[in-house]
Predict the structure.
Amino acid sequence: MLGRVLNTHQQWLCRQLADLGYIVTRQVAVPDTGNDIQQAVRDALARADLVITTGGLGPTSDDITRDLIAEMLGKPLRQDTAVLGHIQQFFTARKRPMPERTSVQAQVPEGALVLHNPHGTAPGLALQVSPNPFRPGGAGTWLVMLPGPPRELRPMFTGSVVPLLKRVLPLASGFACRTLKTTGIGESVVQERIAGRLQRLVEAGLDVGYCSRPSQVDVRVAAQGAEAAHQVEEAEAIVRRLLGPRIYGVEDDDLETVIVRLLAERKATLALAESCTGGCIAHRVTNVPGASAVLLAGLVTYSNAAKQRFLGVQAETLAQHGAVSEPVAREMAEGARRETQADYALSVTGIAGPSGGTPEKPVGTVFIGLAGPSGTVTERNFNPYDRETFKQVTAQQALDLLRRSILPGPPA
Amino acid sequence: MLGRVLNTHQQWLCRQLADLGYIVTRQVAVPDTGNDIQQAVRDALARADLVITTGGLGPTSDDITRDLIAEMLGKPLRQDTAVLGHIQQFFTARKRPMPERTSVQAQVPEGALVLHNPHGTAPGLALQVSPNPFRPGGAGTWLVMLPGPPRELRPMFTGSVVPLLKRVLPLASGFACRTLKTTGIGESVVQERIAGRLQRLVEAGLDVGYCSRPSQVDVRVAAQGAEAAHQVEEAEAIVRRLLGPRIYGVEDDDLETVIVRLLAERKATLALAESCTGGCIAHRVTNVPGASAVLLAGLVTYSNAAKQRFLGVQAETLAQHGAVSEPVAREMAEGARRETQADYALSVTGIAGPSGGTPEKPVGTVFIGLAGPSGTVTERNFNPYDRETFKQVTAQQALDLLRRSILPGPPA
C-alpha cells in the first residue's frame, strides 16, 4: 500500500484465469491489518463463486490471513501432521534449524484441502464455503489461499489450483480466445476499421477488447459456448483481413521476439546503430533468448565522434545536415552493416529531449534507417513524448520497419 | 482483468500518496462494465475521503467511466469549449485528422474541475461529492478521475492533483518521510544493521519500512505529528552512519541518475562495452536527461568478431580464456576507453542463459571491468537469475562499481 512493490500476482493470476475462460470481476489489495483483510474477504465471498487470496500464510507476525479467515468462518485450526512433516523435511534437506514459529504453517482450518508447496513451507489451502453466510441463497463459494512468493504461488496455481477448478467449478460451456498484436496504428483507427465488421459476431456473443500502449494495440476476441472456437476463428480471420501487415504477432509475442524468430529462421544477422534510443533496441532484442544467434553488435554512437569512428559517418555529412538528419541515418545504417558484415543494419538518430530541439527539428524528430540486402531505406517520424516513451516508441518503429522489410506485403 | 497489462498506476499513485502522508486503505480494479465500475466507485465513496479512478476517459466505446460516474451522481454532462479546442489543437499540431468520437472527451460533468492534459486529449476531472449519498453523515468525498496512459496520468497527478489535495484535503498534523536507497547489500543484513539502533525512534512513533528488489533495498522512514521532521532527520542520520557508502541515493534516485550527475559534476566522460547485458546499461544511462554530456558511446559487442573489431580484444585472449573471462573483461574496458577517449569505460561479459553455461562457468557467471584514470579493475560475480533479472542485476553491479570508483570511501 506504500507503492514500493508492483503487484504482479494480480496480473499473472488474471491472465491464467482469463485464458481458462473464468471471468475475473474484481481485484482488491488491502493493508496487512485484520479488519481490512476480513472485510475484503467478506465482500468477495458475497460476490463471487471463487475467491483467491495471496500472501499472509508465512511464519512472521504479520502473516495473519489464515487465522483471520478461519476465525471469520468459524472453522477451528488443527495441526496437520503431514504438513508439519513436510516443513521439518524442508529444513532438514537444507541443513538449517527449523525456527519455532514455522510450525504455525501446519495449522489447517477444519475441512480445508491442503495444496502441497514443493518450493516453500507454507501450504496453500482451499475451502468450500457452503452454505456461504455472506451470499444467502447463493451457491457455495470456493476460497483458495495461496502463498505470496511468486516462485511458490505460480507452480501451486498451475499444479494444484487449475485441476481443482476444473473439478469443482467446471465451465458450463466451451471457451476460446485469441489476442492479435498490432503496431503502427492507433487504437481508434483499429476500432474504426474492425468494429463494424465484427458487429454480427458481437451480437452473437463475441467479446472484443482493445489494449493500447504506446505504439502497440492488442485486439483480443473471446467467446463462450459450443460455437466459441468457430466464432473466435472467424473473428481472427476478419481482423487479419482488415489489419493485415499491422498485425505482428499473437498472444505473448513482443516485436523483438518476432524479429529474432524471423531472422533466425532465415539465418540472417542484424547490427544496430543507435543514437537517441541509446541502447533501447539492443536491450529489447537481447532480452530474447537466442538473440546471440542473430545480433552481431549494437553501436550506441551518442557522440558525433563515435558516429565517425565506429560507423564511418562522414564529417561533411554531419556538418552539412546535422547529426539528426536523413543522410546521417543512412550513413549510420550502411556503416553498421559494412563494419559488422550483418545482413541487416538498423539505425536511429533523433532528439529525445527534453532539450536539443529546433523549430525545424523539434524534440521528438527522428530518422530511422535500414540497410539490407536490397539497399537502404529511411523514414522520418515525429514522436513528441517524454524521453522514455520516445525511446520505446522509436525502438518499436525501427523494429517494425525491419519486420516489414523482411516480410514484404501490401501496405497497411 | 484479462492480465494483459501490469497495473503500475496503483503502485505509482500509492507511492505518491504515501510520501505526501495520505494513507491508502484499498486498491481495487474492475472490468470495463457499467455495473462493476459504478459498484466499485460507490463502495469507495462509502469508505474514503478521497477516491481516485484511472482510465476510461478516452474516445473508444469501452471508455465509460466519465459517463457512468456522472449518471450515478446525477450530474449532467456539458461540452466544455476550452477542452474541445485543446483536443482539436492536439490533432492539428500532429497533422492528423481528428476522429469523430474524440470529441466525447470534451464532455464535463456539471460542477467538475477540469484538470488540463498537456500530453493527451482526455482531461482529468475532479468533483466534490458533498453531501456524499453513500456515506450519510460523513464529510464530503473528493472524486478524482485521471486518464489511463501513464505519460498523461503522472504529470497530471503531480501538476494538478497534488496542489488540489493540499488545498482541499490538508493533513491535520505534520508528516515527514525519507527513502534511502542502497545497493550491494541484502535485506536481512540491512535490517540487522539498523533495526536495533532505530528502536528508540520506533517506540516514539517512527515507521520503518524495507523494500527489497534484486540488488536494491530501500529503507523508508516516516513519522507523523509535530516532531515528524526532526524524527525522520535523526533516523536518516543513524541509517547513513550504519550503511555508509552502500547508500547511493534518496527518494526516486536511480543508480544511473546518480552516475550521470557524478560524471557531469566532474566533466568526466563514459564509454560502455557490453556483452551479456546487451545494451541494458546504455539504455539505463540514456534514460537520464543530460546523458549525452557524459556518455560518448556504448558498444554492444555480442559476437567475438565485434569484440575484436570495435574494442581491439585480442584473438588469443578470446581463444585462451574464452569470451566470458577476466582478461576479456579487462581488454574490453581498456579497448572502449582507448577507442572513445572516455575518462571511464565499463565492460561486462557473462552468461545470461538460459543456455551457454559450463560446470566451471555456470549460467549467471559475469565479469565486470572498469578502466579509468588510475588503471583497470575487474570483479567476478554470480547472478543465477532469469535472463532479464540477470541483465538488470549485472547492470546495477557495473554502475555501482563505477560509482564507488568515482567516490572513494571506506569499504561498506
